[in-house]
Amino acid sequence: MATLNVTPNAGSFRVVHPLDDVQEAKCSSVGLGRIKMTRAVRVSLGVLRGYLVFMTLMLAYHVCDLAGLFTRLK
Amino acid sequence: MTALETTTTPAAAQHGVVVRKSWQRHVLTFLMVAGPGLIVMEADNDAGAVSTYMQAGGQYGLHLLWLLVILLPICYFVQEMVARLGIATGKGHAAMIYERFGKWWGHFSLIDLLAVNFLTLITEFAAISLALSAFGISPYLSVPISAVALTMMVVTGSYLRWERIVIGLCLLDLLWFVLAWRVHPHWAAVAHHAVIPTVPAGGITGSLVFLVIAVIGTTIAPWQLFFQQSCVAEKRLRFADLKWARLDTLIGAIFTTLVAGAMMLLGNYGYEHHVSFQDPAQMAIAIAPFAGAFVRNSLLLLMVNAAVLGTTAISLASAWAYGEVKGWEHSLHKKLWEAPGFYATYIGCVGAAAAIVLIPHVPLQLVIISVQVFAGLILPSAIIFLQLLLNDRELLGDQWVNKRWNNIINWTIIIVLFALSLLLAVQVLLPNIFPN
Fold it and tell me: Which end is more exposed in chain A, N or C (fewer Cβ atoms within 10 Å of the end residue's Cβ)?
């Protein structure tokens, strides 16, 4: 780390603010494309989709209820 | 991923501070790295949180204090993952979802985040309006001035200037401890309720369950995931800064939990004096005859401070996320004209929320319910993406991915949050399903 490694004199340390330091090469997603569909990813996204569908249906039910649709149907 | 060591260039060597002692180096490095963790945690104690924690104290006394103690490590574990991902990739959460999960999930997360953030901003300005009205300041004056001040904070073209101002505002929250001390709680009872869960008189009712979920939902908010990762990327934290970023996050989590506890103690003061209230401003006025003008005025000002902190962090979370996905310049280091889309998003969010609050008879209850519904959609999805990204070896390599124990803890947190979000949504959308 540049912050700690720069030693102007033996026994002293130069502490550099992250914004003033040399930019590091980060973990890049360039060229990787989409995440690998492992079992964990597939199951997680499937559960998430199910959850969102359920929430949307519940919201639609609530909106219809507020609009008095069910009362009128009865 | 191998970018662990950096070479020192003459440019970097010209900057910085030379110290002689090892401990000075550690302290100084921490002070330089700290900020995102403290800000994200303390900004989470926004106007909605003040209201929720005080309501918890006001309705159930000290009975829900233990919940905060449990939430502290959960908060830390979630935000630590965010900081790690931000440092490892140098990119925000929205950008990572977009790149690794595709456009559909990217747009879904972004739109949901923007919606919940915008609705939350309306509640922040409503709180500013309420608190300053108690001082006799008209909302037509207080709300536009706050919106302009919030805009001025970010358009200076300096991340550090913004960060210093916001850390100053965070430290103002120390005043909550003074207020908690001024209302003389029974400290032995506080310690007891902080470690031993107890059921309030009346048993487990629908409103108790609702409040428990609201406290959890307030403590872990979806915008926090997006905000801290973007903030870490904005500050260009380095791989070796991770341990300091973790410490920053831990200190932030402890501080924010203690502040939340102080809010509950103030709510408890109202409970002990049989004061009923709908919002903290009402409570501040109601307890003034017993607690004094200092407590009343401080409480109102802290409510404004909470709303200001929440507004700047939430608006920035939206602006960073939108800028990342759109591929715009999205940095506080840029001048207004260098990142017009980014600043327009921030100013647009702040300005529109402020304007809506000034509309007479705005249906705030509908806004609050919508916040809870949208948050119920975005929190589980954002946290799932976070967990999957932190297991993405292709992206992060072996060093930065979650360890096995990380995954056990995090999946447990995710399952609990999923269940609670579902429960909250069911209760909000189908209010008659639970007995009261």
Answer: C
